[in-house]
Amino acid sequence: MDVRKAGTDGNLVLAGVLLMLLGDFLFSLNDAMGKWLVASFSVGQVLVIRSLGSFIILAPMIARQGSDALFRIERPPLQLLRIVMTTTDVGLFYAAVAYLPLADVMTFYMAGPIYVAAISHFFLGERIGWRRWLAVFLGFAGVLIALKPSTAMFSWPSLFGLCGSLAFAMTLVLGRRLRQTNDATLVAWQTVGALVAGLVLSIGNWRSASTLDFAAMLALGVVAGSAHMLITRSLKLAPASLLAPLQYTLLIWAIALGFFFFGDIPDIQVFLGAAIIVLAGLFIFHRKNLTDTIPKEAVAPDGH
């Protein structure tokens, strides 16, 4: 029985890993599609139609849990802040990829978990010591290298990517504060926020779209919603400490899709910055896993 149970648990973990990898691929595909679309349409218009596409995925989930669940939310001020942050994250991401290669923008976003470690220290009271603080500073140094230190590093597209990644990190932190709210409710309200922001931003910037373009913008929402569901499910099947490093495959897909669809090849500074960010992030995941799962006396003190 124990052997059978161990085999079943192993299959569930493997399923979780595969779902995470597929979810990351779909997110990367969504990013590439978004870059292609914002070359011809305003960010606001893309946000509007993308949001409508997301409701294709959300509608069955909302129907199953009952629409009244949408209004049973914890901490409304934090919910509103999360909606603002998620909308800022998505909007600035599309604004950045309109001008920069996918891999460049994704490099900024790969620093999100590093920002989370720093923000959580103050916002969630999750104490981190000198080892993880050192990794945070190294990760931020990687971001600065990827920004290509020069007068161009403060160009609008670079600032869009940097600020968008900070908004993304805040979204992750707020999601942990609001963990009692179910996923369908969280995603539904952030989709409403993106829809409203898109309507405002598209005033005077709306242009007619072909059937193919309209379908592609709807598909953005469907693909992103499917990716979110896959990743949420994967986290229920396998330990987060195992799955978290797999999210760095987003960077690999960004390089591959950027080259395949747009002919973009990251320069050496982006590769170097990305390598530093990934190593710093992996160390933070590893250190957190140690301090969470191993008795404190068995772990070298983090040095608060």
UniProtKB/TrEMBL annotation:
Translocase listed as a keyword: no
InterPro entries attached to this UniProt entry: EamA_dom, EmrE-like
Keyword line: Membrane, Transmembrane, Transmembrane helix
Membrane-spanning residues: 12-30, 36-59, 80-100, 106-124, 131-147, 153-174, 186-206, 212-231, 243-262, 268-286
Pfam families: EamA
One annotated Gene Ontology cellular component of this protein: membrane
Domain EamA residue range list: 15-146, 158-284
PANTHER family on file: ACYL-MALONYL CONDENSING ENZYME-RELATED, BLR4310 PROTEIN
UniProt-recorded name of the protein: S-adenosylmethionine uptake transporter
